[in-house]
Amino acid sequence: xxxxxxxYNEQAAMYDTxxxxxVPDYEVFNTLISEVIGCPRTILDVGCGTGNTLLRLLERHxxxxxxxxxxxxxxxxxxxxxxxxxxxxxxxxxxEFQTKHSFDVITSMxxxxxxxxxxxxxxxxxxxxxxLANEGVYATVDIFKGECExxxxxxxxxxxxxxxxxxxxxxxxxKWLALHKAKDMPLRLSDQIALLKEVxxxxxxxxxxxxxxxxxxxxx
Length: 220
Ligand SMILES: C[S@@+](CC[C@H](N)C(=O)[O-])C[C@H]1O[C@@H](n2cnc3c(N)ncnc32)[C@H](O)[C@@H]1O
Fold this sequence. Notes:
Blueprint: H1 3-11, H2 15-22, H3 26-35, E1 42-46, H4 52-60, E2 65-69, H5 73-83, E3 88-90, E4 103-109, H6 118-131, E5 132-145, H7 149-164, H8 169-183, E6 187-188, H9 189-198, E7 203-210, E8 213-219
Parallel strand pairs: 1-2, 1-4, 2-3, 4-5, 5-6
Antiparallel strand pairs: 5-8, 7-8
Helix pairs in contact: 3-4
């Protein structure tokens, strides 16, 4: 089992109570991601966690066929309970993912910063691009580094203020921000856009940005 799977297995039970206190505009991002993807017949949610995005996608696109995957067995189990059999769920990693099917839409919400290198990201984005149907869409929310040290510092301080609204100072500094610094691998927004274009997406737009968090929409 990987370090990432272990860490999310431990977080699964309390995930839904903390995620909204960790990600500014979590609900806004979840709503927007379901609204900017047109009228897909098939959607794959990568790193689906406990199924919050899938639930929103189901409400907005009730006739679409939904699939979710996640590397953490505990997160997938929580999603299975929440989604009551309405979504095809798979306990596999992005890196293991292979399919002969194509999808109209792929989504990923707060997942890809867990991949440990730029090359791992490039490979995954390449697979997403090849898995999408003609005119398919990839919609992704993630955390980004600032474009320069000053904006990086600004986003970090403002995010810390946001975290202090939901957690004690000790939890913010010794737990959540320490975990972020030790484990996460965010890219700059400009770098992420360049990578998506490199693997073949024809256009890449930023739909919504809140501090260091953003929703990107990439069209094949
Ligand atoms: C911050 S949670 C986000 C969950 C969900 N997308 C949401 O927005 O609530 C990150 C999720 O990505 C999953 N994950 C991390 N690395 C992964 C990988 N390489 N392959 C598949 N899932 C991964 C974790 O297990 C976890 O469930």
